[in-house]
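Holo prediction. Input below; ligand is 2'-deoxycytidine-5'-monophosphate.
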Amino acid sequence: MKHITIAIDGPAAAGKGTLSRRLAETYGFYHLDTGLTYRATAKALLDAGLPFDDEAVAEKMALEVDLAGLDRAVLAKHEIGEAASKIAVMPSVRRALVEAQRAFSRKTPGTVLDGRDIGTVVCPDAAVKLYVTASPEVRARRRYDEIVASGQAADYDAIVADVKTRDDRDMNRVDSPLKPADDAVLLDTSEMGIEAAFQAAKRIVDAALNRN
Ligand code: DC
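Structure of the complex:
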């Protein structure tokens, strides 16, 4: 079988992460959540007490990110996500991280990368491109349920507002805005549970793999 990359894009909390991990397991591919590379860069700046408006400093941190050391549990924090979406608008930060992500995408036998610009910028030649989305209210509800299930208090209205702000920042930035690639298959999971969404994604990937 020739080398395959599956590109998965979509807004925050659309379910890309879970789908990507399950697809990678199913096909025996390596998986990279590219959001974690932006988060790791942001965390390095936060830890060092460095400012978020100095692109040269942020680029230096981006160049030092180790893809093998990305720890979801550490990087999941809300303030790291906020900081990540601010440095993700910087072209030189993106260039540094995209280069590392492209190198990862070439791992054999295949890879699944998820993020905002995988099908459009990082891996435009990916064999399969999925754009996973859901309404802001559904995504906020899922995040709310997750927080409450972990025993913490959550404010649904604040989460909806946060999801919309994050969408706005991701979709309207000048460099690599979030949008479906022309050849991406759209998967709206608003009305689907995770198992139905996975089965739908797998059908799309299988159909694309059969064409290749
Ligand atoms: O998916 P996430 O919340 O972990 O992403 C964190 C931030 O990084 C988010 O604001 C968008 C940005 N990001 C990006 O610009 N490009 C990617 N390929 C992945 C994430």
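The pocket of 2'-deoxycytidine-5'-monophosphate is lined by residues 12, 34-35, 38-39, 81, 84-85, 88, 115-117, 166, 170 (CB under 6 Å). That is the main takeaway for now.
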